[in-house]
Amino acid sequence: MSSGKQPTQSKLGRNLANMGVGGISGTFALTFVYPLETIKTMIQMQSEAGQGTSFGKILKQRIQSKNLMSLYKGLPAAWCRQFFFASLRIGLYYNYSDYLQAKQKKTSLSALESTLGSLGAGAIGISAVMPFDVIFVRFQAENALPPAQRRGYTSLGNAMTRIIREEGPATLWRGIIPAIGRAMSLNLGMLVPFDMCKKLLVPYLGATKANVLLSSAVAGLGASFCSLPFDNAKVKMQSMKAAADGRMKYSGLLDCMM
To answer: Are 89 and 49 in contact (CB under 8 A)?
Structure first.
């Protein structure tokens, strides 16, 4: 009887390990790229206001004003978002994969099954961590706003309680449609180009680390290209404020994109 449970326990242990490693490694990587993420958000916010800017211009301004650390605003919220999102996405995908393989008695998923699992895991994962996503985007957006328009959040807890008190709990899930679109397109943009590129490069590079590295770079570009329109809309919807008459600038994803 114990031998029958062993494979299941082994898979559970593997999935938990993958979730932990995925969450920690994703959070660790985010720490290094977070300033770039903040600059991206600032460019998106300033473009909405009709202000032309660029990565180099923003970075130069921060260096000249000796204010580089402002690019790390909202990092605790981003850590929470990244850890739980990466862990959930990986855990959901591997459990889905194990379930289908056991049910169909096969050792791997088809391309369609893998794609659907990846999209579903991304959508569920981002839905669960939306409050952290909204908060860290608002912290980043502060860098692009004049002092009079800033919300002045002081911490993750302060932002969470103020949003609930001032705007209602539903605001913590504002922008969920473009966020899901971003997560799904990000997963799809990584999965398909990576597999295709890796197969195409086998005759030239073989199954080597160089192949994986180059395929990963191509997948990263594909993922960014596919997800950026959704990301742009997500940032603008999450950071928007109500006008004097109580109306929001955007009514939804399509209104924001148009």
So the answer is: no
